[in-house]
Specification:
With 80 residues, this protein is mainly alpha-helical. The protein contains two helices and no strands. The longest helix is centred in the middle third of the chain and has 53 residues.
Amino acid sequence: MSTKKNGLLALLGLGALAWWKYKNSTPEEKQVVKDTINTAKDNFNKFGSDIKSKASDVASQVQDRVGQATNSAEKTMNQN
């Protein structure tokens, strides 16, 4: 438990330091931080969209294969 507590305190300390540094930054430095955050957010959203697209493609391939297997099985049963 103390490891979690220490980790949380360290995270809070880093957050407080980052906030203090941001508040005392020049407008140009603040804009750099905002741009970095926006770029990271855009990249994260793009990554999420790519994963959704790939998952949809895989699901379609699985459905096609199941359909082919079903058709094959039906043909085999009808021949017997």
